[in-house]
Amino acid sequence: MAADDKIKLNQPRPVHDSISEMAEIVLPNDANPLNALLGGRLMHWIDLAGAMAAHRHSRQWVVTASIDHLDFLVPVRVGDLVILRSSVNRAFRTSMEVGVKVWVENYREEEKRHVSSAYLTFVAIDATGNRVPVPPVIPETADEKRRYEDAGRRREIRSAESARRTQVRG
């Protein structure tokens, strides 16, 4: 890769460049015996939506490093439309925090409900699996600036928790 291309890859990018959206119709194969979406299937879709935003921001291959927390707020049924929207909240040296918000849309009743939200950390890598730097993110709106600051606080909490787990394993 030419030096100019490397410089171009690491230019700061606005949050809106990373915004990704995907939609899935819940089919019987995605559901449990009660016709509700399997939690693992939703987790898979969240991971994919998050990876799309991380790819768009970094222009690199990315791997999932962690997911902070996941609550399932409302059931999703066979036949419902699931909408996942993701964007990079903040970029660090080689990692990015991506927020994913999930809604269920019952298009027959014109109803939309919040299903889940998640924060995932992705790490950019090269073809041999080595970490590579990612460009800074530029938050522009008030909401993006708030998410940017919140991501920094969440990173501190993750680091402290990681240090605690390492100490416990001793």
Give me some keywords for this one:
3 helices, single chain, 170 residues, alpha+beta
What's the number of extended β-strand segments? 7
Average pLDDT confidence is 93
Radius of gyration from the alpha-carbon trace, in angstroms: 18 Å
> From the 3D coordinates, which CATH architecture would you assign?
Roll
Give the termini distance in whole angstroms. 42 Å
Q: Mind describing the biggest β-sheet?
A: 5 strands, antiparallel
Provide structural commentary:
The chain has 170 residues and is α+β, with helices and mostly antiparallel strands. The chain has one domain (3-169): Hotdog Thioesterase (Thiol Ester Dehydrase, Chain A), CATH 3.10.129. The chain is built from three helices and seven strands. The strands form two sheets. Strands 2-4-5-6-3 form a five-stranded antiparallel sheet. A two-stranded parallel sheet has the order 1-7. The termini are far apart. The model has no long low-confidence stretch (mean pLDDT 93).
In short:
This protein is of the alpha+beta class and 170 residues long. Helices cover 32% and strands 32% of the residues.
Map the helices and strands.
Blueprint: H1 3-9, E1 13-14, E2 20-25, H2 39-58, E3 61-67, E4 81-91, E5 95-106, E6 111-125, E7 137-138, H3 142-169
